[in-house]
Amino acid sequence: MMTKKKIRIVLWFFLLTTAVISQTKFEKGYFVKLNGEKIDCLIKNSRWLFSPAKVSYKFSEDGETMVFYPNEVLSFGIENGSFYLSLDGDFPVTEQFTSNKTSSAIPKKVKYHVFVRQILDGYAKLYFYKGNNDEVYIVQKKDDAPVILDYKQYVPNQGVKSIKENNLFRRQLLQSFNCGDGRLIQTTQYKVNSLAHYLNGFNECMTGKKTAVQPKEMRKKGSLRFFAIGGALLYNYETVFSRQERDANGFLLPATNVPVMFKEKLSPTLGLEAESILPFNNKKWSIYFSGLFSSYNAKGSLKDDSSQEIVEINLQQLVFSLGTRHYMFLDQKNAITLTTGLDFNYNLKRDFNVAQDNFEEFEDLLPFNMGGFAGVGYSRNQNLNITFKYFFDTSIDEDATQENNLQRLALSVAFKL
């Protein structure tokens, strides 16, 4: 069986990963002061799910960490990353939860001074604010003042779950972002893809080309991505065999059960994986399903006499895993991954070749077994994943008393197809 030392190595690996993640990560960026001066610095990139209330920065890796607030700067940006504009204005209360929606169709306005994230650039720009249970979109033409788009969902009859929309933003688009296609405005929704699509068309109409940058929010999310997987799986197995012996007169003695240890062995693996990045929390979570082929061929000896090899196991498995993966980003491209889930094993071949006549298997091996796993790894652009996975001990014997007698560790490398 796997030694306590190996288990400790796994645990230390997890602790080391946690220590790495806990370190503050700053990236090259800048902010623009109220007088228009651009200041280069290092900005802590938290990959904000909500609009940040404050931003940490410093001027060198070992420098003092400072913060700025929306009312102290005009904007800030991260190199090859996000751009945020500081905006002071009246924001509509959109109330994302149905239970909080009112019967009034007129949007309530609240004055905020906040950071809004740019998700579309060009002749016409699109910004997004998320916070205080609100999701609000802002548009800007050239260097004109930003326009906060008004929108309200309401419930005309309290107690009835029918939700209506007051699409006031369409009138705002018609007034300042209209290139002659009023019908398209009437089908535009208060959603990032729909607004970005409309503004892309407006930019093309005004400049002769689509000058907008494709925002991350418009990338197709939740679609399946396929990976080819290669790696190795370390097996360790222990079971019980029945030993039949005779006394001095040649009569059979009652059978006794003896523990048998099989040699630890590394097996190459090949397979495929399908992964879906979940459309929330900045693409930090995914679910996946993978299938691997692996085999384990090893000799077994008596636990109390390792020199006496009595049997050989020939196990071939299809290892299916259904799990979730969390990407903990170190920067825009690199991430540490944590994964956990269930594994389902179909044992294609499960044979014992007994070398001595007075031994026989106590029970047959199961054609199917399942268990759980946990793992840690590294990801590059979410297109290359290297994972170290620990399968929780499971049983492959039909005898219910032989529990948790198979242990496995896996190292895999997955390439996006």
Task: Walk me through this protein's architecture.
- By secondary structure, the protein is mainly beta.
- It is built from four helices and 21 strands.
- It has helices at residues 4-22, 169-176, 182-187, 192-207, and strands spanning 26-33, 38-44, 55-58, 66-68, 73-78, 83-92, 109-120, 124-131, 134-141, 147-148, 152-154, 164-166, 224-243, 256-277, 285-302, 305-329, 334-354, 359-361, 368-380, 384-394, 406-416.
- The chain has a ten-stranded antiparallel β-sheet. It has an eight-stranded antiparallel barrel with strand order 13-14-15-16-17-19-20-21. A two-stranded antiparallel ribbon has the order 11-12.
- The two termini are 37 Å apart.
- The model is unreliable at 214-222 (pLDDT under 50).
Task: From the structure above, extract its key features.
single chain; 417 residues; mainly beta; 10-stranded antiparallel beta sheet; 8-stranded antiparallel beta barrel; 4 helices; 21 strands; 12% helix; elongated
Describe this structure in a few short sentences.
With 417 residues, the chain is mostly beta strands. The chain has helices at residues 4-22, 169-176, 182-187, 192-207; strands spanning 26-33, 38-44, 55-58, 66-68, 73-78, 83-92, 109-120, 124-131, 134-141, 147-148, 152-154, 164-166, 224-243, 256-277, 285-302, 305-329, 334-354, 359-361, 368-380, 384-394, 406-416. Strand 9 (134-141) and strand 10 form a beta hairpin.
Secondary structure layout plus pairing:
Blueprint: H1 4-22, E1 26-33, E2 38-44, E3 55-58, E4 66-68, E5 73-78, E6 83-92, E7 109-120, E8 124-131, E9 134-141, E10 147-148, E11 152-154, E12 164-166, H2 169-176, H3 182-187, H4 192-207, E13 224-243, E14 256-277, E15 285-302, E16 305-329, E17 334-354, E18 359-361, E19 368-380, E20 384-394, E21 406-416
